[in-house]
Amino acid sequence: MRAAELRSLTEQLLSHEVESGAYASSLARVFSSIDPALDFDEIFTPAGTAISSFDAGLCVQDAARTAKFTRGIHAAMRDLWQTRPKLRILYIGTGPYATLLMPLLVMGGTSALERVDLVEVNPSSARMLQTCLDLLELDQRRIHLYAADFMSWETPHRYDLIICEVMAAALVREPQMAVVKKARGLLSPGGVLIPERISLFWGLSNQNREPRWPSGMSRVPPARYQWTHLGDLSAAETPPTTVELEVKRAHCEGQELTLFTEVQVYGEEVLQDAESMIVNTVCVFSDFRAYPCRLRLHYVEGPRPGWTAEPIRSGEGNCLRGK
Ligand SMILES: C[S@@+](CC[C@H](N)C(=O)[O-])C[C@H]1O[C@@H](n2cnc3c(N)ncnc32)[C@H](O)[C@@H]1O
């Protein structure tokens, strides 16, 4: 019954017969009817925080994200099938429902897949995912679920498609950067890593006037009037982790140094401007009164991934100028 509903819902999403909000609400209802016993325990790993099974379950309702990832993954699978009969898929950080892939597996079955490896570090999410696989009547002969930290997990396999959405806004807190760097080494030649590209920007803005998911302000134009591309995270690129930047003094008043991402899931499926939690802005520096406007921005990897911004004293460093 649940499998039939999920199949029909996924077909409607892919043929654009249902909008993303309605898709996400129906999906959340199907998943939570399986077993609502999620918990609130976060796991602190050496590469970042793994959110609780409750919070990972809530990600379903980040509607544009859920819809665009699902459509993007479907498009990538279709493209890959042009050149290879059976796909090997790795999904890192599945949460309790493997939200971004499960609907496609239920809709299409697993006969055109060689193997699907699911890796989830939070034991509560992994347990729940096993229940979902059982109840959604999936043929599990080719599906392997590992309750493990991807960063120390080992595999002899190479994958045609790797999915990782282990991220919060501006790549803080969760281990997306570290996970992508490791995952790219597990791609087979011509394989696809999803998201294809995470573009990072810095800008000046006023957090109070920024649109934010999910507050429903997505029709407000962003208040940021100055922004600069910092770099991209993809299968082939890593953004610079230390940059020096200069903000024109006239632009500083009442502004905050803000970071945000644009996420190209696959092809035309792109998330931007507060459409999702993962593209919300994050303020990293606001005390422009007390310091000169030359800053060193640095991305710190490790258990608490995130950004630091510190003033550069005069005579020190080479600055990237904002527009
Ligand atoms: C933002 S949630 C996304 C859940 C689901 N993929 C979705 O899109 O709805 C990220 C998930 O990655 C898991 N995770 C975080 N770090 C991990 C790691 N090092 N290895 C495996 N899973 C990890 C978390 O426990 C969490 O379930």
Look up the CATH topology of the largest domain.
Rossmann fold
Note poorly predicted spans.
Answer: none
Main β-sheet, spatial strand arrangement: 5-4-3-6-7
Number of strands: 16
**What form results from the Cα inertia axes?**
globular
CATH class of the largest domain: Alpha Beta
**What is the distance, rounded to the nearest whole angstrom, between the alpha carbons of the first and last residues?**
56 Å
Question: What is the N-to-C succession of helices and strands?
Answer: HHEEHHEHEHEEHEEEEHEEEEEE
Molecules bound to protein: S-adenosylmethionine
Q: Determine the structural class based on helices, strands and strand pairing.
A: alpha/beta
Note the quaternary state here: single chain
Strand % is: 25-35%
Summarize the structure.
The protein has 323 residues and is of the alpha/beta class.
Describe this structure in words.
There is one protein chain. The protein has 2 domains: 2-197, 3-Layer(aba) Sandwich (Rossmann fold), CATH 3.40.50.150; 198-321, no CATH class. It has 323 residues and is α/β, with parallel strands linked by helices. A hairpin with a 5-residue loop joins strand 14 (294-300) and strand 15. The strands form 4 sheets. A 5-stranded parallel β-sheet has the order 5-4-3-6-7, with helices on both faces. The protein is globular. The protein is built from 8 helices and 16 strands. The model has no long low-confidence stretch (mean pLDDT 90). The structure holds S-adenosylmethionine (SAM). Residues 45, 47, 50-51, 56, 59-60, 92-95, 99-100, 119-122, 125, 149-151, 165-166, 174-175 line the site of S-adenosylmethionine.
